[in-house]
């Protein structure tokens, strides 16, 4: 799964690259040090081999003689893994000379077929002595005198010394690389976070715009990001102008259609039935359709606007104050929890939807109308609760309520269940249309007290 955060992505890639580089560097340095150490170890054995060669002669009894002084106590201490051996070859019949450290032990010889001599007639190989020490052996063959007496010279060194030195170096190397790596990763993380701060600042500014706390992308940005910030501000301004222009055009259209439709309805009242009734019905249908599509056009123009924000508590308090003045005999109880809820809607649409519900509730309530606003427990069907928050607004009265069949009829466009009450029957239909245009939901149900409970689920601001 790819990380969604740009900071996490850059940190992940840079961390993988840094760790991989340090691992490769550690392996290469360790290999080079081992190669150099083994070469130095062989050079040491070669030097000791030449010292032994210079110390050995053939005496007058045609015997090997000499006592090499190599300046290393390990050649005189038993079973140390540091030995020298001089052995006669061919018809040269003489006892071999060995170092004190080897004593009566043996040092196996590797076949020349496996490890041949080089151009200097030397060879190096690894074997184990009689004491199970792993040793590196330097070997050569030398003609000692004019009679052709030849001897094999071998000097062995304990490889544990070499491996111990290499292991100590590797521990120090990996410790140093680890300290450097952690320090480098920390500095790298700080550098990335510092470098990406302008993007984080832009993100916070965009969140403020989405929350309605700001109308433009504010702040000073580096020259790589400034063009993007300028374009976003220009887009927001263009969006605001489009919304204002659409709102003005819809208002002009509504005003221009209102008068002709009113004239038709007045004429319908004058005409006798059945022509008058037919004309009035068609004028009502025309008014309904015009109002519906005007609402849709206006809402569509501003539905996705980042500037459409309405404080729930403030908007509902204004509506409740109006309803209390218009219906002094009714009690209106408002509850908004938690405070600070914000709808991603135009204030006009909020007031129209909730206002219609309050008018309907006040018309049928006996004593009390309760209005409740809170975060919705889940998103409407087909909507994603992770993408945005949702707010549920309940308007409940203590009136007679409706049956299930009546509820189904009540939300039909222009349908009035009680002809004795004033109104056009368009209120609930308008509420449903506006809620639908904002991808919300609207429903009616029987309240706990037996009255009608209207529920709106509308988009909020996270």
From TrEMBL:
SMART domains: HATPase_c, HisKA. Residues 193-244 form the HAMP domain. It comes from the Bacteria. One of its GO terms (molecular function) is phosphorelay sensor kinase activity. It is found in: Membrane. It holds the Pfam family HATPase_c. Its main location: membrane. Coiled coil: none annotated. Residues 252-462 form the Histidine kinase domain. Its EC number is 2.7.13.3. It is an enzyme of class 2 (transferase). This is histidine kinase. It comes from Xaviernesmea rhizosphaerae.
